[in-house]
């Protein structure tokens, strides 16, 4: 008797898969909408069988290999299952459409250049207004805290969107463990700097590397703010920001830094990478607010990279009932 396949929580039902006609017409749709060549996750999607598998070889490999594999998959937390009505984004689509300028600005090529990047050992410096400055390692992140899976909507400032099951734990759990001083008001996070190993940092010299981001401490302690160690039931592939990143689903994607190596607690608002690089286009808060257009395009709609569906953007990416009390609406 043949075994019955029971889909894992992160598997996309066949009825939600992108129709071939949608895929073939996607570029034409994008051009008509003014998106040009944003490259919305086309890697291998038109290839049959073995050709597609060969094209995607290594696409979804965890950057840690088998290390900490016993921590996955984690149980889905039903209180954080956002986006189920939209359908889960197929893992290969989410894994082949990535903004990670440290490697390249070409979304479809990030995974190729990121594959094999060494992430162990990994050190995270903790300093600033904190009771005990220290250095965290992978064991601190992967074994000290209980893990859970959350399905979050993700919204890029470029107007593409997806639904991804992240595995990790609440950021406030890490903050409480680190014991910031009462004078701390902000959290500053810095990503990896490695101009030898990261071709994007080496070639794009005009950017103020390494990548750095900031949050108000009350934002960082919000229940939705999530430390991400894995996706789709396993540890992160490098293109998603291994070995760990943040997920802040009510903000544009660039506010969720990848491959973090430094945490600093500060009293004053820290500078951020994109605000410093292009202050006329990117603010400190960068919440998803459809009525506030980017200087070069509207934010009133978004396109799902899994289905090609275009829909109206939601205030705070649909999390307004949870995070609205944090803001006045005047933040930028």
CATH architecture: Alpha-Beta Complex
Helix content: 10-25%
The number of domains is 1
Instruction: Provide the CATH superfamily.
Output: Oxidoreductase, molybdopterin-binding domain
Q: What is the class in the CATH system? A: Alpha Beta
The counted number of beta strands is 13
CATH fold-type name: Sulfite Oxidase, Chain A, domain 2
Span between termini: 60 Å
Give the overall shape. Answer: globular
The average pLDDT is 88
Q: How many helical elements?
A: 10
Largest sheet: 8 strands, mixed
- Secondary-structure element series: HHEHHEEHEEHEHEHEEEEHEEH
Question: Could you please describe the fold and organization of this structure?
Answer:
By secondary structure, this protein is α+β, with helices and mostly antiparallel strands. It has a single domain, classed as Alpha-Beta Complex (Sulfite Oxidase, Chain A, domain 2). About 20% of the residues lie in helices and about 20% in strands. The protein has 10 helices and 13 strands. The strands form 2 sheets. Strands 1, 4, 5, 8, 9, 10, 12 and 13 form an 8-stranded mixed beta sheet that branches. A 5-stranded mixed beta sheet has the order 3-2-11-6-7. The longest helix is centred in the N-terminal third of the chain and has 14 residues, at about 20-35. The radius of gyration is 19 Å and the shape is globular.
């Amino acid at each position: 008797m043949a075994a019955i396949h029971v889909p894992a929580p992160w598997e996309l039902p066949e009825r939600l898969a992108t129709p071939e006609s949608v895929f073939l017409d996607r570029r034409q749709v994008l051009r008509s909408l003014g998106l040009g060549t944003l490259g919305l996750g086309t890697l291998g999607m038109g290839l049959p069988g073995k050709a597609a598998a060969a094209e995607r070889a290594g696409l979804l490999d965890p950057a840690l290999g088998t290390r900490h594999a016993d921590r996955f998959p984690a149980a889905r937390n039903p209180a954080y299952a956002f986006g189920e009505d939209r359908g889960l984004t197929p893992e290969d689509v989410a894994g082949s459409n990535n903004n990670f300028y440290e490697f390249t600005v070409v979304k479809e090529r990030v995974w190729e250049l990121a594959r094999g990047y060494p992430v162990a050992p990994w050190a995270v410096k903790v300093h600033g207004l904190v009771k005990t400055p220290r250095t965290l390692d992978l064991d601190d992140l992967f074994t000290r805290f209980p893990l859970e899976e959350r399905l979050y909507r993700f919204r890029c400032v470029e107007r593409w969107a997806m639904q991804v099951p992240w595995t990790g734990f609440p950021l406030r759990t890490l903050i409480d463990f680190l014991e910031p001083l009462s004078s701390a008001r902000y959290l500053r996070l810095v990503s990896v700097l490695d101009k030898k190993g990261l071709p994007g940092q080496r070639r794009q010299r005009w950017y103020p590397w390494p990548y750095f981001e900031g949050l108000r401490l009350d934002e960082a302690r919000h229940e939705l703010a999530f430390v991400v160690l894995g996706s789709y039931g396993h540890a992160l592939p490098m293109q998603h920001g291994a070995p760990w990143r943040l997920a802040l689903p009510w903000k544009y994607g660039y506010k969720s830094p990848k491959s973090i190596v430094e945490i600093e607690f500060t009293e004053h608002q820290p500078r951020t990478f994109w605000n410093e690089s292009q202050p006329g286009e990117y603010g400190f808060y960068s919440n998803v607010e459809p009525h506030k257009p980017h200087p070069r395009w509207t934010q009133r709609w978004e396109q799902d990279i899994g289905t090609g569906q275009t829909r109206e953007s939601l205030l705070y990416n649909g999390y307004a009932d949870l995070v609205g009390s944090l803001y006045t609406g005047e933040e930028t």
